[in-house]
Write a structure and sequence with these properties.
It contains 10 helices and 7 strands. The chain has a 5-stranded mixed sheet, with helices on one face. Strands 1-2 form a two-stranded antiparallel sheet. The protein is elongated and about 135 Å long.
């Protein structure tokens, strides 16, 4: 009977929201009527807002019954009532919401009354036999139909109660789900709206990916120019001086050559670091599991590492996951003041999932640094998702989901 109770709650409360829908639609109709004489123009934004609030309430009620959330239609917001009114007038969701609320205002109260009647029949089926026993014989007693004998008093109410319970157990939940599904169809974004939102998301992620790519190229250029190139120039100068002074001062020439050799080693070290920042060689050598274990081993905070066996993934996906783990562990080492953490990398439902948890002080926010922002941009470029929970006092939990088909 749990389903029956949830369905009853949904349909009975729907009676109240049906009345609210009728009031909201009536207010909108009055405002539109008065707008013909310019009096209701000022009332229209408020009437549309009330209509949207009732529609939002209905969507939330359908959410709770269907368990799976009903996706909300993105709405354009304006700073002024006139701008909001123009946005609502041009939004197809406004008209779909108004159409559904019209249906709900008509059907909601009868459905609520019908469900309440079934429960009253159940209650009456338990009470009527006692009333027939308690009231005088000559007193009239009616329970759906007139009851005139003990046989009718003991037989008819239980049968009606059984029929009502059957309807409550089977028919009412089906009716409630069908009603909620109709609400879902009315409030959910249209295919065109979903396509427009998807295009907007892809445009934003593409712009973020291009910005991140440009920033990465500038970093590589800066590292090569300020580091490796400067050392190579110094090497060339040392070798030139050594060549010119070799005959006059062999000892100085040898010192300059030794210094140039040391600079060559340092330049090679810096060049290897730049290459690793582009695509870590450890990914090609040991795959993502080995690279993750290597990053965890270099982290000063003790970590529990769990990496499920993974097949080789696309290079872009492995590289993104590697840099996500590297940045997350760097944040733990620098800012968290943690004494321990947990790192998990696994393949789940077609996604590569990276979970990083630490017991530090919390308070991590993408707006406070470039590390988390970089993670978000890198993940968004692959159509992934980032979830961050970091309350003050900890713990901090970072979850990244990357679609393996990207």
């Amino acid at each position: 009977m749990r389903r029956a109770w949830f369905a009853t709650t949904y349909l009975v409360t729907g009676g109240a929201t049906a009345v609210a829908s009728a009031v909201a639609l009536g207010a909108l109709a009055v405002a539109l009527g008065l707008s013909l004489v310019l009096v209701g123009v000022a009332l229209l934004p408020s009437a549309v807002h009330v209509l949207g609030s009732v529609a939002h309430l209905e969507r939330r009620r359908a959410d709770r019954l269907l368990v799976t959330p009903v996706p909300a239609e993105p709405r354009a917001l304006g700073a002024f009532p006139a701008a909001r009114l123009r946005a609502a007038a041009g939004d197809p969701a406004t008209y779909r919401s108004a159409a559904w609320l019209t249906v709900h205002a008509i059907a909601g109260v009868p459905l609520a009354a019908g469900v309440l009647l079934l429960w009253l029949i159940v209650l009456g089926g338990l009470v009527v036999p006692l009333m027939w026993w308690a009231v005088p014989v000559e007193a009239p007693l009616t329970f759906v139909v007139p009851i005139t004998s003990w046989v009718e008093a003991l037989l008819l109410p239980p049968l009606l109660t059984l029929a009502a319970l059957t309807l409550l157990r089977w028919a009412v939940p089906v009716l409630a789900v069908a009603y909620a599904l109709a609400a879902r169809a009315s409030f959910a974004p249209s295919p065109r709206s979903r396509l427009e939102r998807r295009v907007t998301e892809l445009t934003a992620t593409r712009a973020g990916a291009l910005d991140a790519h440009a920033a990465e190229l500038r970093r590589i250029e800066r590292d090569l120019h300020d580091g490796t190139q400067a050392r190579l120039v110094a090497i060339a100068i040392h070798l030139g001086i050594a060549q010119s002074r070799r005959a006059a001062d062999p000892a100085l020439a040898d010192q300059l050559i030794d210094r140039a050799r040391t600079s060559v080693e340092a330049a090679l070290t810096e060049l290897r670091a730049v290459v690793r920042s582009i695509y870590p060689p450890i990914l090609a050598d040991r795959g993502l599991p080995g690279a993750v274990h290597a990053l965890a081993a270099d982290c000063p905070v003790p970590l529990t590492v769990r990496v499920t066996p993974l097949q080789r993934l696309p290079a872009a996906l492995e590289s993104a996951a590697y840099f996500v783990v590297a940045e997350a562990l760097a944040n733990i080492a620098r800012h968290s003041r943690a004494t321990g953490g947990d790192l998990r990398v696994e393949h789940r439902s077609g996604h590569l999932v990276v979970d990083v948890t630490d017991d530090g002080v919390g308070g991590a926010q993408p707006s406070t640094g470039t590390g988390l922002t970089g993670i978000q941009r890198r993940v968004a470029a692959l159509d992934g998702r980032v979830e961050l929970s970091s309350p003050i006092g900890g713990p901090t939990v970072l979850r990244v989901e990357l679609p393996c088909a990207s």
